[in-house]
Amino acid sequence: MGNDQILSRIETMLPKLTLSEQKVAEFVLGSPDRVVSMSVQEMAAHSLSSSASVVRFCRSIGLKGFPELKVTLSADLAQEQKSGYYDLHKNENTAELVDKMLSNAMQSLRDTVGQLDVGQIEEIARCLHKAPAIFAYGIGASSLVAEDISQKWLRMGKNAYAFLDTHVLTMSMAAAPPGSVFIGISYSAQTREVLQLTKFARQSGLTTISFTGFGRSELSELSDYNLFTALAPEAKVRSTATASKHSQFFIIDTLYYIYASMNIDSSIDHIAKTRKAIEELKRIESEH
């Protein structure tokens, strides 16, 4: 894990924590500079919790333990103040709106990179490299991410699909060759259809990958591998949902380039062939 925007992560994960873990989280958010010099016992006493709660809190936010929390907090405090997330308001000044959207996008990308598990994304790239077929599914805005996955890996010569019809997708996965992969996309990790299709994919012998906002969930537990983006605070006008899409596309781009670098000569060859095919199609269309 690189230098993380850990305070932002704790703030956005606060509602998902247990009551005892929330006590620890609230103390960290209120006095991060004090936490870096405390022992786990002192932390427990000041947050009116227990040493076990402190350790569970650290693990719930994706850290190995209290020492890693102190190290990550120190790195976070040493960085410039984060830009933060902003919602939209009535009759927003256009210049201010542009600044807010830029801030949301940048903050989401920083937080996403901070919690990125490099080892996990490399394993996923290797898994996709071996897969005879790749299926990606999401609803609403997540369907755009699924379509992006399909298009990128089609260019690499893979059988990659982003069916919107769940019946067609189910039939395709049932007949998929061994080693095929299903990627379920749900920022909330609670989309019913994505959960159902992930369960079916597991039953059918497919390797399952979840692509969600950061944190443990039923979907992440069901999946063999997990891709996470940062969780942004809920916004009244859902401006942060726009920011989350930037992070999702960033993760897919990163995964795509890792995948391509595994066999760069073959990747370049596939891209050249698909580009040539599109150019030929445009030539034929221009003649009619």
From TrEMBL:
The alphabetized list of GO BP terms reads: carbohydrate derivative metabolic process
Q: Which residue ranges does the record assign to the HTH rpiR-type domain? A: 4-80
| CDD domains assigned to the protein according to its UniProt record, in alphabetical order | SIS_RpiR
What is the recorded name of this protein? RpiR family transcriptional regulator
An annotated Gene Ontology molecular function: carbohydrate derivative binding
At the top level of its lineage, which domain of life is listed? Answer: Bacteria
- PROSITE patterns referenced in this protein's UniProt entry, alphabetically: HTH_RPIR, SIS
To which species is this protein native? Paenibacillus donghaensis
Its keywords, alphabetically, are: DNA-binding, Transcription, Transcription regulation
**SIS domain spans which residues?**
124-265
Q: Which PANTHER family match?
A: GLUCOKINASE (PTHR30514), MURR_RPIR FAMILY TRANSCRIPTIONAL REGULATOR (PTHR30514:SF10)
Against InterPro entries, the record matches this protein to: Homeodomain-like_sf, HTH_RpiR, RpiR-like, RpiR-like_SIS, SIS_dom, SIS_dom_sf, WH-like_DNA-bd_sf
SUPFAM superfamilies in alphabetical order:
Homeodomain-like (SSF46689), SIS domain (SSF53697)
Q: Per UniProt, what is one Pfam family of this protein?
A: SIS
